[in-house]
Specification:
mainly alpha; about 350 residues; disordered N terminus
């Protein structure tokens, strides 16, 4: 069947697939910031749903957190390399590979493994609260490295969005307040947020020079190789006879949607949005997770969720309206001319 699809009238079929991949990764019908906002909105909706699905996967004793993480790396690597067959191959220099290696270490390896390890050692409440620091860290690093101004609108927007996320997280604290926590776990979650913020800022300009699939096929390959000493023993310990069809489907969602598709969309956001604006959408994740839990009948949609949603979207809007360094420089130039 596959051979019929890809090799019967090969040039025509290949051209159709290439056009589809181009549309998915470049949103050619949209312009500028619109592509970035939609890409990151979809990404965080998928991540929010993933909170519920991944938790369901980890409730099965056959799969632990590090095993699921390595499934994500290995599975995404395979899919990225397959899809790379349908785009034009890009020339890569040694400097490009070194940059991608650095991006892989910060944006995938440290970010994913430290969060999973931290979540295993602390409470979900503490982990969620620490993750809300990501936009703040991104704003500070952008100011230091990219010389992006910390405007009053940006500060207000970040704080408003953060408040919305914290209200939602703390509203669940009374229900989950007896969960254990540790400073080591909290420190690992903070490391996860810091590494992701650094990845978004340090590699912003480089990301713009490469196709998302080219970037991700190498980033995930490097991440998979770096974690081979941990991943292979973990996978060998998995009793696959204990995994039912539903669990396979949930793992497939984590790999294809919460890893492959999201990491395909993140570079589109990086190319079109400022780092702080991009990370503001992280605040949507606990809200999406809460909505899914309500839909499943495990919780009620109370005033906290409504207020949190309003504050998060308001915060994103305010940050979006804050002026960039380029805009402020243009205003200064026009004033000096006048």
């Amino acid at each position: 069947m596959l051979s019929h699809i890809f090799f019967n009238d090969g040039n025509v079929k290949r051209a159709k697939v290439e056009h589809f991949m181009y549309f998915c990764t470049n949103f050619s019908v949209m312009k500028g910031a619109s592509k970035g906002h939609i890409a990151i909105l979809v990404t965080n909706v998928i991540f929010g749903l993933n909170i519920v699905i991944a938790k369901q996967v980890l409730s099965n004793e056959s799969i632990d957190a590090l095993t699921l993480t390595y499934f994500r790396f290995a599975g995404a690597t395979i899919v990225f390399w397959i899809t790379s067959c349908f785009i034009k191959e890009e020339k890569m220099s040694l400097k490009d590979f070194l940059m991608i290696l650095g991006a892989s270490v910060l944006g995938v390896t440290i970010n994913q493994t430290s969060f999973i390890a931290g979540l295993n050692s602390t409470s979900p409440i503490d982990a969620s609260l620490i993750i809300t620091l990501t936009p703040i860290l991104t704003m500070l690093i952008s100011a230091a490295y990219l010389k992006e101004p910390i405007t009053s609108k940006k500060v207000i927007g970040v704080l408003v969005g953060c408040t919305g996320a914290v209200i939602l997280i703390l509203s669940n604290y009374s229900l989950n307040g007896n969960q254990s926590r540790s400073w080591i776990g909290n420190a690992l979650c903070l490391l996860s947020s810091l590494s992701y913020a650094c990845y978004l800022v340090f590699f912003r300009d480089f990301i713009k020079t490469k196709h998302p699939i080219t970037l991700m096929k190498w980033m995930f390959l490097f991440a998979g190789v770096l974690l081979l000493p941990i991943g292979v023993p973990k996978i060998k310990m998995v009793d696959f006879t204990q995994i039912n069809t539903l669990l396979y489907m949930e793992i497939l969602y984590v790999v294809l949607f919460a890893t492959f598709l999201t990491y395909l969309l993140i570079p589109i956001g990086q190319k079109n949005l400022r780092p702080t604006t991009l990370t503001m959408y992280n605040y949507l994740q606990p809200i999406i997770a809460a909505v899914i839990v309500v839909i499943l009948g495990r919780d009620n949609f109370g005033w906290e969720k409504i207020l949190s949603t309003i504050l998060v979207f308001l915060g994103v809007y305010i940050v979006t309206k804050s002026k960039s360094r380029q805009q402020l420089e243009q205003e200064k130039e026009s004033k000096s001319i006048n």
